[in-house]
Every structure is written in structure tokens, then in C-alpha cells.
């Protein structure tokens, strides 16, 4: 069993796709911890704002199998791979951390976005402040507190996943 952390985002039918993905993760993995949801401007392109959050769960899947599961879930929500890196998405799911494993440079785990984007780092720090970053050997909470990334454009929102 491995503790893993994911990033979830959407800027097309945001609430519907994220609620469905959150429910599916709970269905398939049981106990899942979610951060608050944040609305943030599109990064790297002109587009509708995103909803972003982090999720933590435990799995027996290998990193490769978990990434495959995430790709299938994205595709089930109409995500087309092969599209531009910076573009609108129905669902964007990334494996941020897999236990204390460092799979660099062959696999993007720990994910570079943890140190690059506030909408990845700060929600992750919300649910995993004491988790060690396997490369930096510092906790996610310390990294967030000392980060020069700004959360000024992150606006906390509430999703209604009851329907």
C-alpha cells in the first residue's frame, strides 16, 4: 500500500467533471482526502478559469498502473491526449507524489508542477503538510511556507456535488 497525492483540475464544465472524478476516486479507492477547491486563471494560455484541488489516497496500484487509471478517467470525461500542453481541459489528473519514491528522471514523480504552480503546491500542502518531498527532503508544508509562488490569484470555491 502506498500513500499517493494527486492534482485535479478542469476548466470545461468544471463542477460536473470534478465532482464525477472525486466520486469515482472515492468509489475505487475508499478513503480519499480532498483539499479545498480553488478557482485560478488559466496558466500558459488564454482560456476559462480552472477549478483545482489536491487529493490524497492509498493504493496498491504501481505508479505506472495508477497513471494509466488516471488517463482512462480523463478519457472517460472527454479529455483528448496529444492536445497542446497548455489548453482547456474537461479533466486534468496528475500523480504528484507516490509514497517517498523519486522516479525522476524516467517518470515525472515527484511531479515538477508541485514546485512550479501555486494551484498545485498550496492545495497539496493543505492535505499533506508533513509529507516529505522525496527529492528536496523537506516537508510539503515547509516548501509551501517558504515558496515564492503567489496564491493571490487563487479563490476558494465550494463545489455542489450532491446532484
Automatic annotation (TrEMBL):
Pathway as given in its UniProt record: Cofactor biosynthesis; tetrahydrofolate biosynthesis; 2-amino-4-hydroxy-6-hydroxymethyl-7,8-dihydropteridine diphosphate from 7,8-dihydroneopterin triphosphate: step 4/4
Keyword Kinase carried by entry: yes
GO molecular function, one term: 2-amino-4-hydroxy-6-hydroxymethyldihydropteridine diphosphokinase activity
Domain 7,8-dihydro-6-hydroxymethylpterin-pyrophosphokinase: 5-129
UniProt organism field: Thiothrix winogradskyi
Coiled-coil stretches noted in the UniProt entry, renumbered to this chain: none
Gene: folK
Record protein name field: 2-amino-4-hydroxy-6-hydroxymethyldihydropteridine diphosphokinase
InterPro entries documented for this protein: Hppk, Hppk_sf
Top-rank taxon: Bacteria
Pfam families: HPPK (PF01288)
EC number: 2.7.6.3
Entry keywords, A to Z: ATP-binding, Folate biosynthesis, Kinase, Nucleotide-binding, Transferase
Amino acid at each position: 500500500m502506498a500513500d499517493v497525492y494527486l492534482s485535479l483540475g478542469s476548466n470545461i464544465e468544471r463542477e460536473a467533471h470534478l465532482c464525477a472524478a472525486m466520486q469515482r476516486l472515492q468509489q475505487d479507492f475508499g478513503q480519499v482526502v480532498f483539499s479545498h477547491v480553488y478557482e485560478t486563471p488559466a496558466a500558459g494560455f488564454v482560456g476559462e478559469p480552472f477549478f483545482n484541488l489536491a487529493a490524497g489516497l492509498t493504493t496498491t496500484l504501481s505508479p505506472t498502473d495508477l497513471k494509466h487509471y488516471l488517463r482512462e478517467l480523463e478519457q472517460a470525461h472527454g479529455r483528448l491526449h496529444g492536445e497542446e500542453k497548455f489548453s482547456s481541459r474537461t479533466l486534468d489528473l496528475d500523480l504528484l507524489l507516490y509514497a517517498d519514491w523519486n522516479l525522476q528522471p524516467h517518470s515525472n514523480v515527484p511531479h515538477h508542477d508541485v514546485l512550479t504552480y501555486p494551484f498545485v503546491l498550496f492545495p497539496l500542502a493543505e492535505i499533506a503538510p508533513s509529507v516529505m518531498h522525496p527529492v528536496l527532503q523537506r516537508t510539503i508544508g515547509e516548501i509551501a511556507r517558504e515558496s515564492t509562488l503567489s496564491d493571490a490569484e487563487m479563490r476558494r470555491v465550494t463545489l455542489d456535488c450532491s446532484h
